[in-house]
Amino acid sequence: GAVVSQHPSRVICKSGTSVKIECRSLDFQATTMFWYRQFPKQSLMLMATSNEGSKATYEQGVEKDKFLINHASLTLSTLTVTSAHPEDSSFYICSATNAIQGGGSFEKLFFGSGTQLSVL
Amino acid sequence: KQEVTQIPAALSVPEGENLVLNCSFTDSAIYNLQWFRQDPGKGLTSLLLIQSSQREQTSGRLNASLDKSSGRSTLYIAASQPGDSATYLCAVRPFNQAGTALIFGKGTTLSVSS
């Protein structure tokens, strides 16, 4: 079974509304979660990295006030697209890891099934 | 800045053919390289992971090679089947640090006809 659950899988919303996407790790403690965005025929682009209990680190060009990330527990991270506009329509996917200090030899990385956001 | 390129962008082959997908990366200082499969509108399925110290990995009909010094990896698919139709993504992990994100290529979309 899936170890990272992401939902909704698909959402259609009106321009100006906010959309929340959830990413849950089901059987491990996700110390770090990554949020990616993928436009058609493009690669997955990292938007932000969040560590449990601290503020997310955003990649250059990603508006932190527009894409709110909360990682309040070791099993749940949320991405909220605020005041969504048609140009925000994209495929959003989360990735979770149980990374431990000292290196990645024991690190596992799992991906959610993605959320297709369409803003009308 | 690390960049990952995949060639070709799309590939169509008849069932039964052997094929090779290519991936190149600009900075050879990577920790590992991973090949994923992505079905339309779906998440990612990890196929093979090659550590920087390794030359290749095999799983069933799949074989991935890594030439870190030249910044290249190939994914070989033997005896292709219609069920192999998907987008194949190559991703590198830049360095050995806990919680490091992967850097992805744009993918190769494979179509296998019966």
Entry summary:
The complex is a heterodimer of chains A (120) and B (114). By secondary structure, chain A is an all-beta fold.
What does this 3D model show about the protein?
- The complex is a heterodimer of chains A (120) and B (114).
- Chain A is built from no helices and 11 strands.
- Chain A is mostly beta strands.
- The relative contact order of chain A is 0.33.
- The model of chain A is unreliable at 101-106 (pLDDT under 50).
- In chain B, a hairpin with a 2-residue loop joins strand 6 (56-59) and strand 7.
- The model of chain B has no long low-confidence stretch (mean pLDDT 92).
- At the A-B interface, strand 4, strand 5 and strand 9 of A face strand 9 and strand 10 of B.
Features:
heterodimer, A: 120 residues, mainly beta, seven-stranded mixed β-sheet, four-stranded antiparallel β-sheet, 11 strands, globular, B: 114 residues, six-stranded mixed β-sheet, five-stranded antiparallel β-sheet
Write the topology of this structure.
The complex is a heterodimer of chains A (120) and B (114).
Chain A: E1 4-7, E2 10-13, E3 19-25, E4 32-38, E5 45-51, E6 57-58, E7 67-73, E8 76-81, E9 90-97, E10 109-111, E11 115-119
Parallel strand pairs in A: 2-11
Antiparallel strand pairs in A: 1-3, 3-8, 4-5, 4-9, 5-6, 7-8, 9-10, 9-11
Chain B: E1 4-7, E2 10-14, E3 19-25, E4 32-38, E5 44-51, E6 56-59, E7 62-67, E8 72-77, E9 86-93, E10 103-104, E11 108-113
Parallel strand pairs in B: 2-11
Antiparallel strand pairs in B: 1-3, 3-8, 4-5, 4-9, 6-7, 7-8, 9-10, 9-11
Q: What oligomeric arrangement do these chains adopt?
A: heterodimer
Helix content of chain A: under 10%
Biggest chain-to-chain interface with counts: A-B, 33 and 24 residues
Query: Helix tally of chain B?
Result: 0
Element order of chain A: H for helix, E for strand: EEEEEEEEEEE
Biggest pleated-sheet summary of chain A: 7 strands, mixed
Q: Which descriptor suits the 3D outline of chain B? A: globular
Count of individual helical segments of chain A: 0
Backbone CA Rg of chain A: 14 Å
